[in-house]
Amino acid sequence: MAKIKITQIKSVIDRSERQKKTMVALGLTKINKSVEVEATPAIIGMVKQVSHLVAIENI
């Protein structure tokens, strides 16, 4: 599978608890932190839920 790089670009303050938990599940806890993950359907779905908080790059 392809890998994607996800970078947190906005804070989770004043976001719903569900969005906060999704960010933690992706491994993102601070602004400008990046993680490289496999682009599975589950990961893609989580990224879509918080797309306004993250930047995505294909690797």
From TrEMBL:
One of its GO terms (molecular function) is structural constituent of ribosome. GO terms for biological process: translation. The keyword Ribosomal protein applies. InterPro entries: Ribo_uL30_ferredoxin-like_sf, Ribosomal_uL30_bac-type, Ribosomal_uL30_ferredoxin-like. Residues 4-54 form the Large ribosomal subunit protein uL30-like ferredoxin-like fold domain. CDD domains: Ribosomal_L30. Keywords: Ribonucleoprotein, Ribosomal protein. Signal peptide: none annotated. One of its GO terms (cellular component) is cytosolic large ribosomal subunit. Part of the 50S ribosomal subunit. PANTHER family: LARGE RIBOSOMAL SUBUNIT PROTEIN UL30M (PTHR15892:SF2), MITOCHONDRIAL RIBOSOMAL PROTEIN L30 (PTHR15892). HAMAP family: Ribosomal_uL30_B. Belongs to the universal ribosomal protein uL30 family. This is Large ribosomal subunit protein uL30. The lineage of its organism: Bacteria, Pseudomonadati, Bacteroidota, Sphingobacteriia, Sphingobacteriales.
